[in-house]
């Protein structure tokens, strides 16, 4: 019989398999389906996949460890692991560059727990449908429930609601806005995580330039 209290291992296990509420479409979604289980098997979780025309064609894999940390060495490990997987599955029919990166401080928020972790900070949210006459919102994360996030505008225009509750099911994109407070809290949280003082997920990497790149060449 247990007292219902989660151990640190159980907490990490739960967040490790937390589904994203913001996901990809098209070829990005196909790539995400290929790499996500591989990432989890080596101790990482997917944040975002994006195929862009940068430098000819670039596949960006944004990822982090289950505790929210990410180092340059982690990026290199993910890159080395993903390259042969992508070679075999062959989801892209052209030459491309593979770039593995950390989410950075002004990170995308893709899971409900991300909104909880960064509660109190300023976020920009886009919705897939009109909500109170708008599809774009910016403000401080004031509250988070299982179904929605409440945003208090930090620069409300005339006629706009200063406080809006946005259902998670309507969110198509969400990203933290870089502020001095966010930088300070992200650096402090990352340091605490690395030193073992925060036994949970959700820290941002202090350097959003941490990445590993390599050219991925499709064999004809």
UniProtKB/TrEMBL annotation:
Domain Ribosome maturation factor RimP C-terminal, residue spans: 109-179
GO biological process: ribosomal small subunit assembly; translation
Sorted UniProt keywords: Cytoplasm, Ribosome biogenesis
GO cellular component: cytosol
Positions with biased composition (Basic and acidic residues): 189-200, 211-220
Annotated region (Disordered), positions in chain: 189-220
Domain Ribosome maturation factor RimP N-terminal: 34-106
Protein name: Ribosome maturation factor RimP
Major location category of this protein: cytoplasm
Subcellular location(s) of the protein: Cytoplasm
Family in the record: Belongs to the RimP family.
Function, in words: Required for maturation of 30S ribosomal subunits.
Keyword Cytoplasm: yes
Gene3D superfamilies, alphabetized: Ribosome maturation factor RimP, C-terminal domain, RimP-like superfamily, N-terminal
InterPro entries given in the database record: Ribosome_maturation_RimP (IPR003728), RimP_C (IPR028998), RimP_C_sf (IPR036847), RimP_N (IPR028989), RimP_N_sf (IPR035956)
